Amino acid sequence: xxxxxxxxxxxxxxxxxxxxxADGHAVWGLRRHPDPLPPGISPLIADLTxxxxxxxxxxGMDFVFFTAAPAVSSDEDYRATxxxxxxxxxxxxxxxxxxxxxxxxxxxxxxxxxxxxxxxDEDSPTEPVHFSGIRMLEAERLxxxxxxxxxxxxxxxxxxxxxxxxxxxxxxxxxxCPEGSPLYTNRIHRDDCAGAxxxxxxxxxxxxxxxxVDHEPxxxxxxxxxxxxxxxxxxxxxxxxxxxxxxxxxxxxRCRNTKLVQSGYRFRxxxxxxxxxxxxxxxxxxx
Length: 287
Description:
Structural class: alpha/beta
Strand order of the largest sheet: 3-2-1-4-5-7-12
Distance between the termini: 38 Å
Number of helices: 9
Shape: globular
Radius of gyration: 19 Å
Helix content: 25-40%
Order of helices and strands: EHEEEHEEHEEHEEEHEEHEHEHH
CATH architecture: 3-Layer(aba) Sandwich
């Protein structure tokens, strides 16, 4: 039986854990709070930012998935979670001579800051200027240069059940189509995040780096207008974007998922249309 540790067993990690447990793997879910986890995931209460709490990490792990997310979007919290937290886990596993076959790390397409709608892939330059991309890139280097084989999955914007804020903004008439040249967005449904990670674990020799986005980088306005049509409300007005960090707004790229697809992964939700249609069709999931 394969032993799996999911460090930061939250939105994506819990979904992954359920899938792996259903396949017969022994799954441990590490999280800060003792909230109930679904059947099949053994809870492990620890704080990634506090190395002393990691003394109870189980022995004999085969695979580790680091899918943590900070509670606050700040440089301090990103560094504490993605850099310090990851380093703590790797240090403990190495100190205990754990026979880790591979560490998987969920990074972000925030490491790319291309701003003219450029197409990017795993070989494109990464020169982040915002703390989110900077810390993610720092964490990636820890994984890929660490004591165990590592694979990084750079995720686009993750959406899915329980994350229907965009839908509600459109429903309430609060969404705005950004004026000016097209602004591209890159998404991936939560279930495909978990599915891609599960798939990569099955490969005998996965590559170091993959981009995790669906098949269609979409103009933000096109997504908003499509949602408005599905909801039967007026299309969003066009205006300047508000409430967004201008350094984040600089990023405007179209991410390719070619390498992930060529590895054999088949998307459950190939574009935002299938993904949001599933949310709109679910009872309460879109809220």
